[in-house]
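Tip: read the tokens left to right.
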């Protein structure tokens, strides 16, 4: 793996691509040669995948990209990683959204406990349900598919921090039914450092705002790219 990384750097520094738009040095290329197999591996379409550096960066795109008004609620658990929780804390401090936390039992005995707690915490002001597929704190696997369905049924956007999942569990994002999913393949999948991705369900892409803009940011045909 390290050899492939070094060879990639050597190729990059030559800047001898036929089309200058293919230069990987720019850092925001589509990289379809990687997005295609990744999308197959995680069970979604290529155009729903954005390549980023890690789940923390993806979580910041999520927190900054969803339209929210002061007083709108984001619901999460009390076992979120700082890279998942603090993008929302920043949004709350700057824009007045409200963060609510569900306290998970330790240990979680069955999925129904989690579903009941989350269901009871959702209010008419809840706009986003954010939770870890596998929590960093305790390593518990939360019932992600059921939580995403609960959110969908209640008109709430589901955003899942899956930093620890690729390489540890089978993952099919379409089957999972989430709206957004962040991951860090450099963890369990042991991909090179600085390789992460953000999944955005196609129906939600046009509702997400960019955090970083360059040419094409407003081109709907580019989808998650």
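Filled-in amino acids:
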């Amino acid at each position: 793996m390290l050899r492939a990384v070094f060879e990639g750097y050597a190729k990059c520094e030559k800047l001898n691509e036929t089309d200058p738009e293919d230069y990987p040095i720019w850092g925001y290329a589509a990289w379809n040669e990687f997005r295609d197999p990744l999308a197959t591996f995680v069970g979604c379409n290529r155009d729903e995948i954005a390549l980023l550096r890690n789940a923390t960066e993806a979580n910041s795109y999520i927190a900054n990209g969803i339209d929210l008004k002061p007083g709108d609620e984001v619901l999460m658990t009390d076992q979120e990683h700082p890279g998942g929780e603090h993008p929302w804390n920043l949004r709350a401090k700057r824009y007045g959204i409200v963060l609510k936390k569900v306290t998970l039992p330790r240990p979680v005995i069955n999925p129904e406990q989690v579903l009941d707690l989350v269901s009871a915490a959702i209010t008419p002001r809840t706009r986003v349900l954010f939770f870890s597929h596998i929590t960093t704190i305790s390593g518990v696997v939360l019932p992600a598919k059921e939580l995403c369905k609960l959110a969908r049924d209640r008109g709430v956007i589901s955003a899942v921090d899956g930093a620890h999942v690729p390489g540890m569990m089978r993952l099919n994002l379409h089957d999972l039914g989430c709206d957004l999913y962040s991951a860090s393949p450099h963890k369990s999948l042991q991909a090179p450092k600085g390789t992460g991705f953000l999944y955005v369900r196609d129906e939600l892409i046009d509702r997400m705002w960019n955090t970083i803009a360059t040419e094409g940011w407003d081109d709907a045909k580019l989808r998650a790219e």
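Helices lie at 2-14, 32-42, 55-65, 82-95, 111-121, 144-153, 173-176, 202-205. The chain has two domains: 1-30, 34-222.
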